[in-house]
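Researcher: Hi, I'm a grad student and pretty new to this. My advisor asked me to get structures for two proteins we've been looking at. I'm not sure of the right format, so I'll just paste the first sequence and hope you can take it from there.
Model: That works fine. Here's the first sequence with its structure tokens right after it:
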Amino acid sequence: MVTETHPVAHGQHGDGHEHHNPVLHHHFDDIGQQRECTGLGMWLFLATEAMMFGGLFFTYTLYRSKFPMAFHEGSHHLNIVLGTANTFVLLFSSLTMAMAVWSAATRQRNKLIIFLVATWILGAAFIGIKAVEWTTDWNEGLVPALQWNFYQRPEPENVESLRRITEAGTTPDQVKMYFVVYFCMTGLHAIHMLIGLAVVAYYIFLAKRGQFTRYPNDQPVEIVGLYWHFVDIIWIFLFPLLYLIAGFHPFGGGH
């Protein structure tokens, strides 16, 4: 009597490849290998992103050490209320993104959609608040190379600001350097936020089609979650450096 035998069970063949699995790419042996390679690739990408932002953090440190009074005065003109609000918005968005990753892992389609939508709304709110803040900066003449006339305007607070930096031996050009660093750092962060919003919007579309819950295919959501948390962490560093640490200046008073 001849008994037909199969090399392996669960849809695997002798070559070690999983078949009939629409989420497994052909160049991987199995899902475990695919997850490890994809996760490693994402962490390497985040390392390069950290190095890019690290250059800006180094620039900030260098010029703040050279022009401490100017950086104190520049920070004095930021809106700490809006900056604080944006910090809480991003912290909540990290929570909703973590819940989205959990929902994908447990294959709960409706919850995944809800948490991705909530994350997108919070991210859009961050950009909206930042746009309001940048508009105010523009109107006050605080945008170097494009709209820089703050110290030529006659408003009393501008005259008082000029008096403080003059008494401290600082020049308006040194204060301008603070805003160059400020807009470079927050601008690059905002670009990353916009990219994240675009990806999350696309994932909402895919989640509605069951892309992440019909099969064990939660890793794409996990990957975008890593990116989102990274961008949030960058802001956690930017907020104290730009709004708080430099804001406690020796001139007295607050924001």
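Researcher: Oh nice, that was easy. Here's the second one.
Model: And its structure:
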Amino acid sequence: MRGKLLSGVLTVVLALSAAAAAAGQQPAQGAAQQPKYSPAEYQDYTAAQSEKNAQQRATLLEAFVAKWPQSELLPYVYQLMVTTYAELRNFPKVMDSADRLLALGEKIDPWSRAQAIFQRCIAYQSAVKPGEVENAKKAIAAAETGAALVPQLQKPEQATPEQWEAAKKQLLTVFHHTAGFASMQMKDWTQAVKHFKEALVSTPNDALTYYRMGVSAVSEPALAQDGFWALARSIALKMQNEGQVRTYLRNQILRYEQPTCDKFIDLQLNELLALAGTAAERPATFSIPSRDQLNKVLEGATIDTIIADLKAGGDKAKLLGIAVCGAEFPELGGKVFEAAGESDPVTLKVFTAGKVEDIEASTEPNVEVKVEGQPAAAKLKKDDQIVYSGTIDGYTPEPFMLHLSKGKVKEDFLPKEEEKAPAKKAPPKKTPNRRPPAKSGR
């Protein structure tokens, strides 16, 4: 994912380099300028600066710091160390060199500090290890300092106003994103979300920032709704490995909602993804219900109130449908309108209500139940009254039909098998009389 973050920062690097050159960040020379360092110091510095081999240059710079620990040239040496170690991809050394430079405070101009912080942020994200709290704290402090510096930076003469605005946005993105990423390592989810939101102000369509903000937010129950939306938004923006992100999002919804059946999860997920593909902000009317919300919906519910509320439709019906899916009803009364299927399962269409008089007065079914392991249920006839059990696994809004599975009809209400009359025994066969052979006469 680091490559995704780095892919858009080239213009920042170019702008910083141009600015550094324009600002004349070189040690002062000449009698009129009265340098505060010796010719020997300057000779060692220029020897390191002119070295083309990055590894040898790094060795010369480290030797300079050891030999001249109080030199006035240290700001230039540390700047060169930052870029040299970045070239060598020695990220811990990049961060260490940047910290040394930043420790000099106001002695360093805003451009040089911003450039060092920029390189430090990239290095941190490249070398971060889980659990390194102190490194995370330093990364956050540096990144926040960098974000505060951006308004102080002057536009390089070589840059157009449009290029300059784009460069500042990219800088702010890197600084805020790094602060958010470091906050994630500390498991400070609230701060992570805050920084990622600030990063999105500069780059509102960055999939990686949405993804990391989503991962942070779903880790904090109070921020879960923002987390679901951010993850869905990252998928809509074609996040790398979006199939894996989709699976992760689905699992997070399951964990938060804890439904008794997951039949509605994919419907919710698809609705969420469709909405996130058309808007950056989550509509106030859309949310994923928590387990506590589902439990409250079920308080005091009966089969009559469930059917009535589901038939009414709207947001309440959607929430109730999720809440009752998987609910078991051990004993329901109903009138049969249709029995279909001669093998397992048998599908019954039944009118069900809590009152016998309502059942008797019914004219059409409102429940479809699949009866398992009771083939005799296929012989039930229209208007037969039964008592049965089942588990809700969904409903059809129009025409309304509540769907139950794992149904069982109480044995007393199943048609009895007709007793077969005993088969008649065939009369015994008579053994034919056998006469002795006739005697032959002579």
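Researcher: Is there anything I should tell my advisor about the second?
Model: You could mention this: Confidence is low (pLDDT under 50) at residues 1-8, 434-442.
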